[in-house]
């Protein structure tokens, strides 16, 4: 799950990514109040044939809060998460008010069965801040929950790695040719003789079915002189990769 003060840019097709104004006001204001929400579960996994599930949203703040719940198809293009409004998933209620200490049950319903490949969605919960008191800025929070809906047939990720170079530098590239997402954590890369290389562009660990993710390799003398193979270690949802050889892409 991602939690933000609506300050992180993202791609919302058919929508608008907001937050820069809130961040600017927060810097200028003598006081700021952030609302407090808790959501369970924070990762939603829907089993084959499952068409509905529930979220529990709790207001842990001291004031009543309004929350908007929206569903998006979640895809990845050129290593960037893309959220596209969709009615494939219906959230009910789509808008609610929760009293302090109160709980709201949100029902998520798939409108069509998942066939062939895992379907991935993001549920955005946006707090709608109340009017602020004089001298106080209320910061709206956004929660982004991943939803993984499984098809009726058994599927698995199939991730391969390679290194490529272009005019902007060198990159470690992961390609998922499978029909299920994977999550790549604790990623390290080194030369064959054990010299560690720095991977930049930290990002969320998920690589969706059919998607590609790239990590920029910081310029380094060891990288410039190395011809491969390189050694990769990582934790994935299917196991631990230890000293996996990674070569330059021809």
UniProtKB/TrEMBL annotation:
Residues 1-34 form the signal peptide. Gene3D superfamilies: Immunoglobulins. Keywords: Signal. Residues 37-152 form the Pili assembly chaperone N-terminal domain. Coiled coil: none annotated. GO terms for biological process: cell wall organization. GO terms for cellular component: outer membrane-bounded periplasmic space. It holds the Pfam family PapD_N. The keyword Signal applies. This is Molecular chaperone.
